[in-house]
Specification:
Length: about 90
Amino acid sequence: MSTGVLGSVLLSAAWRACDVGVNGAANGLALVFYGALLTITATVWWGVLIGYAGRRSPAAALLGGTLGSAAMLWVFVALLRVPHGYRC
């Protein structure tokens, strides 16, 4: 869940810096949708890692989960930072 919240906060800050949308409320529904999608993806990722790698090595599962979540956040913000090609 923290991955989705952090992704939404980072994306909101990027959109605010680039003046995307009319006001903060205009982007709220999109941020809720994207945050929920990121949360579900991260939950599945952590579940698979804990289920398979966590039995053998909890430290490896924690490291893999953290690196995977960081990669998801990077891709999430990089792809959605500038909707419709708008550059700031």
